[in-house]
Write a structure and sequence with these properties.
Elements lengths: L2 E5 L3 H13 L3 E5 L2 H9 L6 E5 L7 H11 L5 E5 L13 E4 L4 H18 L1
Parallel strand pairs: 1-2, 1-3, 3-4, 4-5
Length: 121
């Protein structure tokens, strides 16, 4: 079973994606801020994919992604965003979804990225 980390400061989005992915058979770990997510990842959590909000108070999604990629260069990451504009992100995610999220499209992308990751291992 693949393990997915979700990080979003919007409780409704966090719960919606969590419930949806669990119903798809994934193990889910969730945090509402970048600090806690990074601390969790520092413990070598065995995460297979990350779904990450770009705009969050404290450590934003771009910074979280930069730190994650220093350790795990091949970790698939999907960005969530509520706006097209915003802060520039130095490190590119594997995909980006606008809020409100189309859960079926998200599911397809999650499956695609996990399949790609498995083939490269």
């Amino acid at each position: 079973m693949s393990k997915i980390l979700i990080v979003d400061d919007e409780k409704e989005i966090l719960e919606l994606v969590d419930i949806f992915l669990r119903k798809q058979g994934y193990e889910v770990v969730k945090f509402n801020n970048g600090e806690d997510a990074l601390a969790f990842m520092d413990e070598d959590a065995g995460i297979d994919l990350v779904i990450l909000d770009i705009r969050m108070p404290g450590i934003d999604g771009g910074t979280v992604l930069e730190r994650l990629r220093r350790k795990e260069k091949e970790l698939p990451v999907i960005f969530l965003t509520g706006s097209v504009g915003g802060q520039p992100v130095k490190v590119k995610a594997d995909a980006m979804f606008m809020k409100p999220i189309d859960l079926n499209d998200l599911s397809k992308k999650v499956k695609e990225l996990l399949s790609k990751k498995e083939k490269s291992e």
